[in-house]
Amino acid sequence: MIDMFALGNTVFGLTMTHSFTGLFVIEQAIKEHKPRSIIELGAGRGALSAYLAAWSVVDGLRFVTIDTVPPMYADKIRAIAPNAAVLVGDASADEFLARAQAEFPHPWLIYNDCGSLGFRQDTFDAWAAIARPGDVQGVHDWPGEWRGWTPPAHVEPLPELNAISATCRSSQQWFIRV
């Protein structure tokens, strides 16, 4: 297995804890599925948020990150992508779901990395319910934090992205298309 773990490395001067393989899979999702909006659920410190914000600038996409606490790197995220939305609260709350539907054009790439806060499945289900055909949702740490969960019937796994992700022990992800 490939294990290119980025712990201790930096992106835009920010400490990155995602693997390079994991970043590659996200990049492939963006390139292949051509979202108009990237919606990150769970920012943590915000290094991945800054990375995704940079992608949004390069590709002319909308970007929003939502977490229960403001990311440590919120100012850096806004400096990289001045139109980025950095929102604080429960990502499955009706106010955020309504705002996304009103402000962020489809197709979406939804990246769910809020498992350590314990509301990951609820968050996945809430966003899958409002997603439109062609939207893609990825989840971080699939094998460790999502055991025993069955995705809704209306979603389709993306085997090409999931196969790449499976090569990385430190940061496996799982992607589906609605």
List key phrases describing it.
178 residues; alpha/beta; Rossmann fold; seven-stranded mixed beta sheet; 37% helix; globular; disordered N terminus
Structural overview:
The protein has 178 residues and is of the alpha/beta class. 37% of the residues lie in helices and 21% in strands. The chain has seven helices and nine strands; from the N terminus they run ββαβαβαβαβαβαβαβ. It has helices at residues 20-33, 47-59, 74-80, 94-103, 120-130, 142-145, 159-165, and strands at 9-11, 14-16, 37-41, 62-67, 85-88, 108-112, 136-140, 156-157, 173-177. The strands form two sheets. Strands 5-4-3-6-7-9-8 form a seven-stranded mixed sheet, with helices on both faces. Strands 1-2 form a two-stranded antiparallel sheet. Helix 3 links the parallel strand 4 (62-67) and strand 5. The longest helix is centred in the first third of the chain and has 14 residues, at 20-33. Residues 1-6 have low confidence and may be disordered.
Summarize the structure.
The chain is α/β, with parallel strands linked by helices.
Q: What is the residue-averaged pLDDT? A: 80
Rg, alpha carbons = 15 Å
Principal-axis shape: globular
CATH homologous superfamily of the domain at 12-83 and 105-115 and 128-165? Answer: Vaccinia Virus protein VP39
User: Regarding CATH, which class of the domain at 12-83 and 105-115 and 128-165?
Assistant: Alpha Beta
Our count of helices gives 7
Straight-line N-to-C gap: 29 Å
- Could you say what the CATH topology of the domain at 12-83 and 105-115 and 128-165 is called? Rossmann fold
Oligomerization category of the chains in this entry = single chain
Question: Which percent bin holds the helix content?
Answer: 25-40%
